[in-house]
Amino acid sequence: MSAAKPEGSAPITSVDQLVEHFKAGIKSPDQRRVGMEHEKFIIDRQTLRPTPYEGPKGIGRLFELLAERHGYTPYYDGEHVIAAWRRNAEGMKEALTIEPAGQFELSGAPVVTMKAAEDELTTHLEHVRQVCDELGLAMIGAGANGLNTLDEIGWMPKSRYNIMRRYMTEVGTMGHWMMKGTCTVQANFDYTSEADAVDMLRTGLYLSPIVSALFAHSPIWKGKPSGYMTTRCFFWTDTDNDRCGFPLFMLEDDFGFKDYVEYTLGVPMYLIERDGKVIDKAGHSFRDFIKEGYQGTPATMEDYETHLSTLFPEVRMKHYIEVRGADAGPADYMLALPALWKGIFYDAQARREGAAEGQATHERPHRDGGRRGAATEQQPETAHPHHLVGQRRGTAEQEERSPGVGVGANLRPGPEVGRCERPHHDATAVEADRSQRSRGMSQRHQART
User: Which pTM was predicted?
Assistant: First the structure.
């Protein structure tokens, strides 16, 4: 996105400095842009297995060929290319990255119009398709890997994923499935003031489960119907509840940048980087890290930006607002997601009406809409939106299939999506949410120290 210049290696000296980080993201209305991030599974066209990193037709080779032919500068983790970037005609940066199991992502440049976003997406998909055809690979647009077991899906050689891989087993049961078995499409939007950022964040949180339902595109797990129209969302329900889900306190009327900073300081860390090496800090408090530093070096704003990238609430704040709740899908669905959110966020009337509808939905009686059928006794009493994803009629076998191989050659969402509903939001629930989160983080940190 059109972020302000990073503060980089500046030492962190106060909480106010972190609040200023978010203030630095404020743009004038005429500077607002849209950013799109989208992931695709890359599979072997013959075996239908996920593509490993190594080998003559692996993910590493895919990076090399794209860099050679289309002007990307490769980025290395040790000896492995794990990302590549270039600037578009306007000088804006776009980047190719990989997720833990080789899901291939374009973090697009910030653009003004959806036509520009469409051009960027079309060009990217054509470039990747050409190389995939040459290597005997195919792109698949879906929210979850519906065919393979965890053991059949390899890991990419990226240092931060080694840390997350270990830590995920300590904090939830679905972390490895989230890392290795999901793809998403996300969109990023600029804010014009602190009040605007908070309003966008709150509106996004209210509407996120509805959008998750609209874009539900992952009903298959291990070769069978999972019982969920978005299995990806199900994986998120028990990944790491310290950093995921729907933080109720963000709906408070007096919520602002400083409250978000306090939230970020309480979420356990994953890592920092020093001298080109990734350092495992999983489970440690960032608040304590600010006080203590690391081996004589202070905590820096670069460390804080790294930490922000490891928080996964449904709607995330950086120098922009990021909405994260949609399954990946065919190309037209990838483009529809940022177009929908742009229409809501950047039009005042649409945002007011969307927030009102989302809040009204939120206040209706809670039911389980994520599974086909009624709520069960096992339904968790949490505020995680992925328990609340809309129901759709029909079975996985009845889904339409589009011809061919590649993005679009997979299950398409059906026509009917149920309403997503949330538990009632009141001051008691907000306080319980905050207290539970604080106790959980404190206990986990104490256990590690």
Answer: 0.82
